[in-house]
Amino acid sequence: MFDAVWTHAIVPPVTAVLTMTVSGAMVSIQRRQSSNGNDCDYRGALAADRVTVSGVYFCTVTGGPWYWEATIT
User: Given the DSSP bridges, would you call strands 14-23 and 2-6 parallel, antiparallel or unpaired?
Assistant: First the structure.
């Protein structure tokens, strides 16, 4: 579990609490307490490098599915 901040040049920052679970190659992230009211559920798979993750997510306000990719460090 960790705190996250999204920044953009023309809108205020968004904060949320993320809970990440990794099971084998599958990654699940729950975004809760989002400051913009847009809680999301992310699902993805680890690539062969075991640090790159990609998948889809759905949100309470913006719907989905939306594509996402991240690097776990």
Answer: antiparallel
Is the confidence at residue 41, as pLDDT, over 90?
A: yes
d(CA 26, CA 47): 10
Q: How far apart are CA 26 and CA 24, in angstroms?
A: 6
Average pLDDT along the chain: 95
Residue 43 CA to residue 54 CA, distance in Å, equals: 8
* Token pair listed for 29: 């992230």
- pLDDT at residue 73 in the model: 82
How far is it, in rounded angstroms, from Cα 64 to Cα 67? 9
- Three-state secondary structure readout of 4-27: EEECCCCCCCEEEEEEEEEECCEE
pLDDT higher at 72 or 70:
70
